[in-house]
Amino acid sequence: MMELWKDTFHDSDDYIRLVFDTYFNRENVHVRIEDDRLSAALLGIPYEFSMPQSCPAHPRLRGMYLCGLATRPEYRRRGIMSSLMLEAEQDAFQRGFDMTFLIPADSHLRDFYRRAGYLDLSFRKEVSAAGSDWCLGEAPADGDGTSEDPLAIYSIRDLVMNGQSSFVLEIADWCRGIESSNPFPTLLHSRTDMLAVMRENENSIFVTDSTFNLKKPILAKVRAVLFPDSAPGENSRVRILKSYFRCEGIRKDGFPSYHHESGSGNEIPELVKNAVCRFYRQSDLSFMISCPDVNEPAYPYANLQECGCRPYAMFKFLNRDRIMFSDFSLPVFDISLMLD
User: Fold this and answer.
1) What angle do CA 195, 198, 202 make, to 5 degrees?
2) Which residue, of 6, 93, 152, 309, has the greatest Cβ tally within 10 A?
């Protein structure tokens, strides 16, 4: 399977080893053997999803993430992968999973999965940080609400190098706590999974108060955990692929806001934007954010595209009765994964 993965996706050996060391479980693997060789395979990874108060009877859903779907070129167009997916879905249903989901690499595959019964129910958009003062090349001015002491930024690797592995666990659990408190249907990373995300993304960073001491770390001083796609100086364009922010207020509806005191789930705290812009010393910086707060029925494509949202993960429901909400037919999921 590792050989087939590398031939298909061209990932590095270190990345493939990390994936299989972390996630491989024979119970969740589905393969086809043709001519005494592995012709196709997929890897399933179980996840839980938290559900909001609008679905109180089912606070958790179980989903099987299908990844590494690969078929050798000479065995394609025979329906092998379609039959493997159906086998994985039936197995997941028999084991009590509510849904299977996957993340297409391109529009062609998205069409293929749509024909197999998968729905676009996860969306995200890219938000530029160009409006930040530091991204405009100037320090924040006094009196504009951003004049407090500058924030500091460290890499997760800094913690490991300083022998603070236990603090890395604290950060992982902190991020997981934010996920479980999200008022939207949200994928929940396990601790092992979150640590794998940090290990795989060598550029992972965390933003702290300026008084943070790397040798004596205190979790209360952490403002944000971010996963950029580049290190400082590597590229002229940097995207923050996933962000976790400290709760700074309570929204009008009573849910905690982990993004901004205004209560908008899609706002980036200005202080964090300024700190990250200063850290990268460039203006071409953007944040990838989920678009779960869509108060429309399923498939609100026109509204989503107008606000810049694009389809991300696709879902197929195995137990539809457990998914239904009281106010709309199907949920929109907040999801972020390492293996996308």
Assistant:
1) 150
2) 309
